[in-house]
Amino acid sequence: MNVACIEARGLRKTFGTTVALDGIDLHVQEGRILGIVGPNGAGKTTALNAILGLTSYEGELKVLARDPWRARDELMRDVSFIADVAVLPRWIRVSHLLDYVGGVHPRFDRVKAETFLSKTTITRTRKVRELSKGMIAQLHLAIVMAIDARLLVLDEPTLGLDILYRKQFYDSLLNDYFDRSRTILVTTHQVEEVQDVLTDLIFIDRGRIVLECSMEEFESRYAEVMVNPEQLAAARALNPMHERPAFGRSVLLFDGRNRDQLTALGEVRRPSIADLFVAVMSRPPDTAPARQADQVGVAK
Amino acid sequence: MNSTSDITPEAAGVIASGHSKAQSFYWSLRRELWENRSVYVAPLIVAAVELFGFVISTVGLPERRRAVLLLDPAKTRSAIEAPYDIAAVMLILTAFVVGLFYCLDALYGERRERSILFWKSLPVSDRTTVLSKTSVPLLVLPLVTFTVIVATQVVMMLWTSALLITHGMSPGSTWTYVPLIQNSFVLLYGLAAIALWHAPIYGWALLVSGVVRRATFLWAVLPLIAAAVFEKITFNTSHFGALLKDRLLGFGPNAFAFGAHRGVAIDSLIQLTPGRYLSTPGLWLGLVFAAVCLAGAIRLRRYRGPL
Question: Of A223, A261, B94, B121, which has the fewest beta carbons less than 10 angstroms from its beta carbon?
Fold first, then answer.
């Protein structure tokens, strides 16, 4: 089924003289899990806000065949989102929160939410402010997963959580929620954790899409080679996208090169999204100044 | 489209949205009361303090009651009824303060704590949200105030009666001079008149709470004071100040015909003047101003994100 979930053409958004989105074309089919990766201030959140009808925009945008800015209220029945960690109201009691969402959302399945919560240590009588950050994220995820939405948007859903919660978060999402007919959009700085979750990938920088590929394409196109020192010159001749030192050797990233050719140069492996991101962001030095790797959370 | 079905998907959608709008409003209102327990806790605390003070004040009541009953009936009534009126006025004042501060936080708090991002992820329109918040000072608080005042007065009367009976006196004087049913009716009318008269104040507070990034109270109040001071210094007039005063207290002389002898006390239902109140231009101008503020607040909530 090739139904478009999100269709954007020439999507633009400016704040005064700052261009947040500089003409984005996007086509996301239903049933995909799209990761949007970019440095801080690249326009990720603005793009998501436009998709969620939280901000006005120029250009064409259709989400589930609706104009998100004009038809926001109806759209929110089919879309759920976690815009940030810890946006649940701190004063509310867990049971009241479930009552409320059940009261206002026609597609909320209370039993499902209770089932998710029973796997956690969250009790119904606690207030949100009494929960840890990780528990609040679990609670929010339990609510979102109990909503039968067609599009789920996650903007940095695991920021500041420890690795156990982050792992659990994506495991639940994949195993208990994703059913190949829903669409998920996720932005995160912890790209390693979503590498095996995504079906599609977008890099965005200064309001533009600088790379767009499916994960199958990612696997087949990009390869990283830890080059044997004596073959470095030969490897460099193949026009790598990026070169970085590692353990006293050079690691070169190639786009679309023949595997056999690369195997002869050294140890070939699958690059991480973070490696590719650094390579793409630092590629044309005149237009995209080299960026610190830690901006995409590649610290290992 | 399913040809066997009598209801088109569009019609089904309309039905569902009509149903869910009322439901969304109901749950939004409940949500407000979960968050703002002061709406009913504050009046209850004030009532408790009033009752405590009243109980202390009734030490030596039987002797005083004997003396009061010797006065002419108007003075007797005034003396016996006074604590009941004071209790009611204090609770009405409490409701106003609670309502004002509630409105000042209503659209500001959710931006400050970022929960607006959560509320906006649910299919509840900005209009439903703002209107549910508006109905707290205009509907919920008057009803809470009414209930608490009547309950407080009943407790006061029961306490007085018990005290008089234990001193071998008839409790009848209290029940004669404090006509509970009539007072409740006057109170209900008065609360409705006050709510409508104060609607622009609440509307203004809601608008300010949706606009500013900090210090909602100062933003709501200081511009008004500044305008009044400016007028006084520049033109040596105080029309704006008079306007503000009228907005705070003007419901009284329009909704009631106060007797000459007892200040603002209402002895008879003849003193209620709903006709005059409803034909006061100030009422309608105020309601128009409130509507404009609310429309602005609804529009703002659309554009505003967390602080």
Answer: A261
